[in-house]
Amino acid sequence: MQSAFLEKIRTIEVKEQSIPSPASDEVLVKIRAVGLCGSDIHYYEDGKIGDFIVEKPIILGHEAAGEIIELGSNVEGLKKGQRVAIEPGKTCGACVHCQSGRYNLCKKVEFLATPPYDGAFCQYITMRSDLVFPMPDEMSYETGALIEPFSVGLHACSRGEITAGDTVLILGMGPIGLMTAAAAKIHGAGLIIGVDLEQGRLDKAKELGADRVINIKAESVEEKILEFTNGVGVDVAIETAGSPAALNSMISGVRRGGKAVIVGMSSKDEAAMNIAQIINKEMDLRGVFRYHHTYPKAIQLLSERKIDIEKIITDRFDSLQGVKAAFEKAIQDKKNTLKVMIYPNGR
């Protein structure tokens, strides 16, 4: 099989490898679609994200879906030819976080495309059988791959405890922000406000659930939020941009007694925030790290076709030979590029 390796910063090499054999509790999946994530781009450009450093050639890509080709000897409940979405994090199952249900906090997680673990920019991959989730026949592989970023949006909405009728502010209309808007819409939010500095992304936000948008190049975020909420502020604000300025807009936009949720990872570990507002408003301030128990729910929600998350896809590359071009497109044309989809085995 072929696999696309990040050899060093901004250097991708497609190599031949043997097709792996599944262990007794694993399945072999033929990868049909993989989304390019912002974390992949960080590794490609910088060779690291925080403490995760690329020290040897690595296969990137963790937003994946495919077809089961082979079953391990102890695998039950799955079958060859089944279309599946892949949850990319293998956790230990034994720590206090796994045992309490918050397995996304497991310190021993082996997450695809996070050093030193290889990812899914390859033609075949073995996965533990409990990490592949059957999809309906009518669900595309593209939607299956997008369940991973959609899961981040679902988890953000869960952390914000969004309920029907809530007013929701989402700062940053990149892929995760757009997926969060879609998730908030499905949760029944009454008013969703999207914020960004690119009008194209704001237009896409309207397609994926935003009722109102604010272009920070031309409008005051604080003033527009008060206008849209009759001077009250929003029930829940979710920051997905990783921007210090967005953090403070999030805090100022939340109503008294509201909730603020931080999803975006900044390039800096520390950012100044208005602590007085957090205290005076008695806000709940919460972080988001990946997700847990989202895949079955996501598959069910997306099967109902209430929203088309494939609208986020802006570019497609039909083989692993296009992986480098995919990265460069995402970097060089940020204004017009949202989600890039790669097909390791062709379309």
From TrEMBL:
<dbReference type="GO" id="GO:0016616">
    <property type="term" value="F:oxidoreductase activity, acting on the CH-OH group of donors, NAD or NADP as acceptor"/>
</dbReference>
<feature type="domain" description="Enoyl reductase (ER)">
    <location>
        <begin position="4"/>
        <end position="342"/>
    </location>
</feature>
<dbReference type="Pfam" id="PF08240">
    <property type="entry name" value="ADH_N"/>
</dbReference>
<keyword id="KW-0862">Zinc</keyword>
<dbReference type="InterPro" id="IPR036291">
    <property type="entry name" value="NAD(P)-bd_dom_sf"/>
</dbReference>
<dbReference type="InterPro" id="IPR045306">
    <property type="entry name" value="SDH-like"/>
</dbReference>
<dbReference type="Pfam" id="PF00107">
    <property type="entry name" value="ADH_zinc_N"/>
</dbReference>
<keyword id="KW-0560">Oxidoreductase</keyword>
<dbReference type="InterPro" id="IPR011032">
    <property type="entry name" value="GroES-like_sf"/>
</dbReference>
<comment type="similarity">
    <text>Belongs to the zinc-containing alcohol dehydrogenase family.</text>
</comment>
<keyword id="KW-0520">NAD</keyword>
<keyword id="KW-0479">Metal-binding</keyword>
<dbReference type="InterPro" id="IPR002328">
    <property type="entry name" value="ADH_Zn_CS"/>
</dbReference>
<dbReference type="InterPro" id="IPR020843">
    <property type="entry name" value="ER"/>
</dbReference>
<dbReference type="InterPro" id="IPR013149">
    <property type="entry name" value="ADH-like_C"/>
</dbReference>
<dbReference type="GO" id="GO:0008270">
    <property type="term" value="F:zinc ion binding"/>
</dbReference>
<protein>
    <submittedName>
        <fullName>Alcohol dehydrogenase</fullName>
    </submittedName>
</protein>
<dbReference type="InterPro" id="IPR013154">
    <property type="entry name" value="ADH-like_N"/>
</dbReference>
